[in-house]
Amino acid sequence: MATILPSPPKIGMVSLGCPKNLVDSERILTKLRADGYAMSPDYAGADVVLVNTCGFLDSAKEESLDAIGEAMAENGRVIVTGCMGREAETIRARFPGILAITGAQAYEQVVGAVYDAAPMPPSAFLNLVPERDLKLTPRHYSYLKISEGCNHRCAFCIIPAIRGDLVSRRPDAILREAEKLVAAGTRELLVISQDTSAYGLDLRHAEWPWKGAPVRAHMTDLARELGKLGAWVRLHYVYPYPHVDRVIPLMADGLVLPYLDIPFQHAAPNVLKAMKRPANEAKVLERLANWRSICPDIAVRSSFVVGFPGETEAEFHYLLDWLTEAQLDRVGAFRFEPVAGAAANDLPGAVPEEVKEERYARIMEHTALISAAKLQRKIGRTLDVIIDAVDAEDGGATGRSKADAPEIDGEVHLRDAGHLAQGDIVRVEIEDADDHDLFGVPLI
Ligand code: SF4
């Protein structure tokens, strides 16, 4: 006699904010899948919808509230988690019908809320453990979170208030996860945290055994071991502490991608001081020159805030001049926005909105020129490119060079590439460039 299996409840997920939040969403979904729940790609098919929110800026909060509103309108059975969980009253005031609200990293609470909202029908067949963790990124790249929280107290940031002080994962646990991801098809590991260069400080850089040898909970050791797994390894959110210099030779040796994502935020000493930025005393321009002498291909991406309270026209000009000297490969800019609870809100010298807009336009124009000139110099070169998408109809493909992180940097657009597949890493001859992207043809 055939056994009729009950259908498991279906979960919908809306994940907002940064890659760190995306990793949290993946963990929650992995746990739910391990418990036998199914996933729904749309609101209509979901028994309950999880909204993992971002509360970094007021604009991100509004976006989170909009997403909650949409999930309530389309489905009506909604659980909220993530950074906005600490503002439960605001959410409940606007959406009294929310089933539950939990905070960032509260995995057990959010999973418990799902058990309550959509209980699993009893069946021995449903509680199957999935073969591997669920991912919200394409199969060929994965974010790898190495720590949570942050020991700094930058004046514009409320992350430490939301996520607490630095808590690093054990290096062997990170390496095991990375190894599993690579075995499952990941070709690029994107290392993320709030402060990657501080990794292991809370563990006093203790050693753990890994494949018969000790590995320290330290950025350099971790980067070296990750580099041995055979995938591209890209380091995000690195601050220019002196020990970062020791990672550059690993880049020159090809173990780690020649790429550093360093959120400098500003260059003028007084602004950096007011921002309370970590490692702001470092002689960054000298360090950059030194890194480039060791690893000429290193690509440096950064982000900057314009219109921080007290920023004068002279200090903004200093930043533009600094950028001319620094010749960064990729730059993102933000207009200063007061975030509820951030210390910067009380600083004197608020910059008028129209001045912020004008400085924002100037920094974007300035950095686009630098980027365009740097990309022009790549025409005629042959670069390794990882393929993100292939268009079978027009025979083209889109990928990224080692200098480009997914979602935030530029792309390489390929012609005559219909034979390639997502995740392939191929040699590409660069034929053209614009302000942010490259164009080329694969050599296979
Ligand atoms: S380093 Fe500064 S900006 Fe980054 S998470 Fe820590 S406090 Fe926030």
Mind sketching the topology for me?
Blueprint: E1 10-15, H1 19-34, E2 38-39, E3 48-53, H2 58-74, E4 78-82, H3 88-94, E5 100-101, H4 107-117, E6 141-145, E7 147-148, H5 159-163, E8 167-168, H6 171-183, E9 188-192, E10 207-210, E11 213-216, H7 219-227, E12 232-235, H8 248-252, E13 259-261, H9 269-275, H10 284-294, E14 299-306, H11 313-326, E15 330-335, H12 353-376, E16 382-391, E17 396-401, E18 412-414, E19 425-433, E20 438-442
Parallel strand pairs: 1-2, 1-3, 3-4, 4-5, 6-9, 9-12, 13-14, 14-15, 18-20
Antiparallel strand pairs: 7-8, 10-11, 16-17, 16-19, 17-18, 19-20
Helix pairs in contact: 1-4, 11-12
Iron/sulfur cluster is lined by residues 150, 152-154, 157, 159-160, 194-195, 278.
Describe what this molecule looks like in 3D.
With 444 residues, the protein is of the alpha/beta class. The chain folds into 3 domains: 10-117, 3-Layer(aba) Sandwich (Rossmann fold), CATH 3.40.50; 141-376, pyruvate-formate lyase- activating enzyme (Alpha-Beta Horseshoe); 382-442, Nucleic acid-binding proteins (OB fold (Dihydrolipoamide Acetyltransferase, E2P)). It is built from 12 helices and 20 strands. A 5-stranded parallel sheet has the order 2-1-3-4-5, with helices on both faces. Strands 16-17-18-20-19 form a 5-stranded mixed β-barrel. Helix 1 (19-34) crosses helix 4 and helix 11 packs parallel to helix 12. The longest helix has 24 residues, at 353-376. The radius of gyration is 23 Å and the shape is globular.
